[in-house]
Amino acid sequence: MIVLAQAAVFWTAATVLLSWLLPRRLQMPAVAVSTCAFLAGMAPAALAVLAVEIPLVLWALPRIRRRGILAAGLAGLLAAALAGFKLGLRLPGMGALVVPLGLSFMTFRLIHLLVDGYAGRLPSCGTGDLLSYLLFLPPLPVGPIHRLPEFLADLRRRRFDGDMLGLGLERILHGYAKLVILRNLFILPVLVPALSGWARGTFRGDLLAAAGAWTDLYVCFSGISDLAVGYALAMGFRIQENFRFPFLAVSIPDFWRRWHMSLTLWCRDYVYAPVAAVTRRRFLGIAVAMVVIGLWHEVSLRYLLWGLYHAAGIAASHWLAERFRPWLPAQGRLARLLAPVGTLATLLFVLASIPVTSRLDAALRVLARHLA
Predict the structure, then answer these.
(1) Could you tell me which of 3, 240, 26, 245 has the C-alpha nearest to residue 138?
(2) Considering 237, 292, 298, 316, which has the largest number of Cβ atoms within 10 A of its Cβ?
(3) How many angstroms separate the CA atoms of 200 and 205, rounded?
């Protein structure tokens, strides 16, 4: 994993240089070729899967307008392939499937193209532009899930900008500081062991261990996202941010507007909105979207419960907000005074998601064994 990370850093830096030194008409094709070469050397399974899925989607896009069966079928096929890898299914003559590098994020980009292509929301562009979008290296391995319209807008006005390059280098430095200094020198060797060792075996101890796990996850993932955003800026593109101080959220919905934002927005547009529109049940849409987010991380009972847990928190938060809104103006003094209470309650709810769902998962497995 460390070798892969180091290779990705140097390869992406070299790709940034390549994207500016070549003649303009060759710059983005060279980036796409560089991405394929990186995958061929470091993750050939990912390249093999994308070599099937990307041409299939590119073939479908000109034919998919208002053809719901084709769009739904291909989107379902992509989702099923991703689920198969996440479940570690075994095929005849092969070992267990392992999720190829970047497939989770690429699958959601491809579904974005299919759904928006069916709805007629995609901007007009050629195959070369689509390949440039799909094979754009900085966000390919671990996100964020950027979208085609914003990418094309940047592509068409792309010029070398020293200020944007400086901003990109600053974000890259922030990412390395989080990963190399904060995580490797403090969080992993000091904070996580200290929190995990207190009151072990109790709910309070599990809550402290969860605090260490969430802190590590945030620093690691936000650091990687900083690198992706920074390298994209250095190449002249602004991609979706992934984090915005999530632990300062004042409610559960606010937390999910700040945490892994590109995934949350994707699920809002492509899961919550269709389910809520078809069923006319907003809370059902919330539940399905949060289950998708949970299972996207891991296809297991524990993460299904984790998704339902957060869905219940979002639904309860909306219900309370609707009931108390007449007595609590959004910008009133009382609202400002209660904001720290909301932040603390949200933080405790988020931290408790790991021990609560883990214990419920264990209890359900014990019950299932007894019933069997």
Answers:
(1) 240
(2) 237
(3) 5
pLDDT > 90? residue 315:
yes
Among 32-46, 110-124, 205-219, 329-343, the least confident range: 329-343
Contacts for 21 with CB less than 8 Å, ≥ 6 apart: none
Residue 56 identity: L
Query: Is-cis flag, bond preceding 144, omega within 30?
Result: yes
On the CB side of 357, CA atoms within 13 Å amount to 22
Cα–Cα distance, 129 to 277 (Å, whole number): 32
pLDDT of 1 = 47
Domain boundaries, given as residue ranges, for the chain = 2-156, 162-234, 246-371
- Where residue 316 falls among pLDDT bands split at 50, 70, 90? very high
Residues 83, 104: contact at Cβ < 8 Å?
A: no
For 89, the token pair is 């299914």
E strand or H helix at 270: none
Q: Which residue has the tokens 């650091």?
A: 223
Q: How far is CA 127 from CA 18, 54, 62, 116, 133, in A?
A: 21, 11, 10, 16, 10
Handedness of CA 152, 153, 156, 158 (dihedral sign): negative
- How many Å is the Cα radius of gyration of the chain? 22
CA angle 194, 195, 200 (to 5 degrees): 105
Q: What is the mean pLDDT of residues 310-334?
A: 77
Partners of 90 in beta bridges: 96
In a 13 Å sphere around the CA of 196, the CA atoms on its Cβ side amount to 12
